[in-house]
Design goal:
Layout lengths: L1 E5 L9 E7 L6 E2 L4 E6 L4 E5 L4 E6 L6 E3 L3 E6 L18 E3 L5 E3 H11 L4 H9 L18 H10 L33 H16 L2 E9 L1 H18 L6 H14 L6 E3 L2 E3 L6 E3 L1 E3 L2 E3 L2 E2 L7 H16 L13 E5 L18 E5 L3 E7 L2 E15 L5 H16 L2 H5 L2
Helix pairs in contact: 6-7, 6-8
Amino acid sequence: MPTEIKVAQLPESVSDATLVGWHKQAGDTVQRDENLADLETDKVVLEVPAPVSGVLTEIRIADGTTVTEGEVLAIIDETATGAAASAAPAAAAAPAVNDADGATETAAAADDDDRAAHRLSPAVRRLVEEHDLDPSLIKGSGKGGRINKADVLRFMNSQRPVVAPMEDNSAPAEEAISVAHDRVEERVPMSRLRARVAERLVEAQATAAMLTTFNEVDLTEVIALRKRYKEEFLEKYDVKLGFMSFFVRAACEALRKFPVVNASVEGSDILYHNYQDIGIAVSTERGLLVPVLRDAGLMSFAEIEQGIGDLGVRAREGRIGIEELTGGTFTVTNGGIFGSMMSTPIINPPQSAILGMHNIQQRPMVVDGNIEPRPMMYLALTYDHRIIDGRESVQFLVNIKESLEHPERLLLGL
């Protein structure tokens, strides 16, 4: 019995999507709820699950095609026999394999790891298919051996033709070139996400009167606190105590004291928010995403760490929901994880401010008349000068600095 696979209801404010890649081919056996293809919007990637088990008999929409809600993508026949039968879950009964430490893992788990390593993002899959590459030959450097775009490009470079050296020992060294260096150019269209991010960044610069103020923070006490309680924290909450929870809590406290930094401009009005929905900038293979941690001001340190970890993983895997990318009141971005010493972050509209974290470096500081090495970080606050005055922006950043240099203030609500 033929079953149509249609584009499901798209998120609000999204009118169409791009089919970036099929995971199955016509004639393949598919299982109910198995992801068949990826649809990319300007905000998220949506999966197309199989509504029934059967054989994918017809694919009607090719990769790269723009589709709309309700459009038929393919046909599944529940009664047909596929070209390749699906593998039975016999791996669960496979013998265990002992490692050097005496720990055991099943062959089924090893198979799962191998599948995870070769699960490709839409951008990577497109690059692999364009150059007719075998993903199983590419060594992934991502989490769990996952293949990213840099791995594919590195593999392609390693496959370039090699010119054998001349047998004549009297030949000049210049003629015994071992690798051909080709001047290659490749034109790749922007993904919908990157194009949308570019549009919003230009919009922010065109509409907001952006100004950035800087300060620096001594993280000695935060580092000591983390070191003192990290093992106990991990054991109790099953999540690591990171720096982000301190910065998010400090930002929420400062936003309460300076509510205009948490506000937004709507026409000729200023819209104040009595809650703190904090956007956390996450770099992914598809581009920059800013999932929102709702009511962060009401969360404990553990809840903040767990929330950020969950949002980050799902954003990088393309499983973040569109509702989780909208509605933030303030954003925190950490360029320090990439080694940035100083930057001027760009506001995420319609928000009015963004806090930039940077790399931690030991620097000589004068403490009580003595020079001591201290772990220092530069902070940057970019704000919309239309509604936030310089005095408020500076005091806001100083408040964050004081909270981090005396983290007990965060616990006491001071």
